[in-house]
Design a protein that fits this description.
By secondary structure, the protein is an alpha/beta fold. The protein has a domain of 134 residues: 2-Layer Sandwich (Nucleotidyltransferase, domain 5). The protein has six helices and five strands. A five-stranded mixed sheet has the order 3-2-1-4-5. The longest helix has 24 residues. The radius of gyration is 18 Å and the shape is globular. Its EC number is 3.1.26.4. It comes from Meishania litoralis. It is an enzyme of class 3 (hydrolase).
Length: 198
């Protein structure tokens, strides 16, 4: 895995988690890794076990020169749509950084300029560049932690396990109990019925 896209040693990597969920925030992280950072385990957070992500988080937080994490909640997602909310989360996380950078690398293919800092969108960037992979681990672990706290309030949706993603179990719970304030009202919460129950 590469450390830098550019030659700038203060390059920011950013990524988000929770974009496809029915409930909870979309969460982004942004960070700058030191030039000598190395880690054999680090990869796209989706390819890592929960245990590995949990072990990596304190290592990343300790070694990063700077990091920021931001949640954008369902009410805002419903107002501005999930793509804009994902970008807003990344912008907010970048805005928390204390170090001024010359370049930003972003996972995926959509981003809006942040201030006057040039950026590059990289498809599957979280499996190609360490700073994006590290940001993906922070975004995922912070979001999972948040969903586990919400689970205590609404255990019937089992967010501790599904983290708000559209699992069969989650959809069944929506059918049975309805929506909460933590659900995204602009998302199709249940699949369209294609057959009649006769």
């Amino acid at each position: 895995m590469l450390r830098l896209f550019h030659t700038y040693i203060d390059e920011i990597g950013t990524d988000e988690a929770g974009r496809g969920c029915l409930a909870g925030p979309v969460t982004a992280a942004a960070l700058i890794l030191p030039k000598d950072f190395e880690n054999e385990v680090l990869n796209d957070s989706k390819l890592l076990s929960e245990r590995k992500r949990t072990l990596l988080r304190p290592i990343i937080e300790k070694k990063a020169l700077n990091f920021g994490v931001a949640h954008i909640f369902p009410e805002e997602i419903d107002k501005i749509n999930i793509l804009n909310a994902s970008i807003l989360a990344m912008h907010t996380a970048i805005g928390q950084l204390q170090i001024r950078s010359k370049f930003i690398i972003v996972d995926g293919n959509r981003f809006k300029p942040f201030q006057d800092i040039p950026h590059e969108c990289i498809i599957k960037g979280d499996s190609k560049f360490m700073s994006i992979a590290a940001a993906s681990v922070l975004a995922k672990t912070y979001r999972d932690e948040y969903m586990e706290r919400l689970h205590e309030e609404f255990p019937m949706y089992n967010w501790k396990k599904n983290k708000g993603y559209p699992t069969k179990e989650h959809r069944e719970a929506i059918r049975k109990y309805g929506l909460t304030k933590h659900h995204r009202k602009s998302f199709r919460q249940l699949p369209m019925q294609t057959s009649l129950d006769l």
